[in-house]
Amino acid sequence: MGGNGLCHSDLHAVDDLTCSPPHVDIQLPMTLGHEVAGWIEALGPGVRGLDVGQPCALTIAGCGQCILCAQGWNNYCRSRGKQVGMGLDGGMAEYVVAPVGAIVPLRSLAPWQAAPLTDAGLSSYHAVKRVLPLLTPGSSVVVIGVGGLGHLAVAALKATCAARVVAVDQRPQALELATSMGADIGTLADDTTAWQILDATSGAGVQAVLDFVGVNPSIQLARQVIRPLGHIVVVGRGGGSIDFSPHGLPYGACISSTFGGSKLELMELLALAEGGRIACHVERHPLSQVDAVFDKLRRDEIIGRAVIVPDGH
Ligand SMILES: [Zn+2]
Ligand SMILES: [Zn+2]
């Protein structure tokens, strides 16, 4: 293990023994950590095409047989089994065993730089790819919640399209980070946010909203600012919900959820990062400090992503 990002899903696993995907049974004890990169230490019998010592990142391995896997949507594979850090022992350890289908080789990125891209980065990038056809020059997109995932969505948007990016957060520090990633407008979440966004689009609303919070107020904000034919992607698992009626959204607008991203999208994202177009804001901590870092995450004090590295690195 060369780097393991800490995720809110880990907190859910620690605090109430739930994990995503929900159908996976957690058998205790289990080592957490599903945002992993490192170097190959040894290969299992019959594994070809990889070298010992090679840097690599891990992603979700699909079954490889079903129609979704055939379409390249390994993240939506219905037969995917236990994954590293979600049922299988994960990356918060010096060594981790991974299925060969989960391996994505790295070129110039260090494992600690790549680790947060495999989950925080990939989930954000996948959400961006879902709405990218709408984001033509002159369009606008809102990113709600510019924390560990959202700040990478801002960077991915700036790297892949010419749309104006509006970042929304309750924390001034997070908005500063979003601005440093290229957000064109940063606005504090309050009663006037929807009005400000509508005002900035001459009342027309935006083509897309990426909601990385997923609570009732954030979904409500998305609904208020989306324009006809727009697309709201709710990535955050904040427990919010939306009532649907044919008049509840502008005509033609749609709302969707996501899970992770595909292996191909991870390769694209790593290519962006290796080309210097995207980088995760990372604070590094040694493996022995992991409990203290979890507490920091629980108190919402991490700006960007916390990545665990082996002691002495
Ligand atoms: Zn995660
Ligand atoms: Zn499959």
Summarize the structure in words:
The chain has 313 residues and is of the alpha/beta class. It folds into 2 domains: 3-119 and 281-309, Alpha-Beta Complex (Quinone Oxidoreductase, Chain A, domain 1); 122-257, Rossmann fold (3-Layer(aba) Sandwich). Helix content is 28%, strand content 20%. The chain is built from 10 helices and 14 strands. It has helices spanning 8-16, 67-70, 111-114, 120-131, 150-160, 172-180, 193-200, 216-225, 263-274, 290-298, and strands at residues 3-5, 36-39, 55-58, 83-84, 87-88, 103-105, 140-144, 164-169, 185-188, 206-211, 226-234, 254-257, 282-286, 305-309. Strands 6-3-2-1-14-13 form a 6-stranded mixed sheet, sandwiched between helices. It has a 6-stranded parallel sheet with strand order 9-8-7-10-11-12, with helices on both faces. Helix 4 crosses helix 5 (150-160) and helix 7 runs parallel beside helix 8 (216-225). The longest helix is centred in the middle third of the chain and has 12 residues, at 120-131. It is globular, with a radius of gyration of 19 Å. The model has no long low-confidence stretch (mean pLDDT 93). The protein binds zinc ion (2 copies). One zinc ion binds at residues 7, 9, 34, 119.
Our count of helices gives 10
CATH class of the largest domain, anyone? Alpha Beta
Rg, nearest Å: 19 Å
The CATH topology of the largest domain comes to: Quinone Oxidoreductase, Chain A, domain 1
Order of helices and strands: EHEEHEEEHHEHEHEHEHEEHEHE
What number is the mean pLDDT?
A: 93
> What distance separates the N and C termini?
11 Å
Q: Report strand order across the widest sheet.
A: 6-3-2-1-14-13
Going by CATH, the homologous superfamily of the largest domain would be Medium-chain alcohol dehydrogenases, catalytic domain
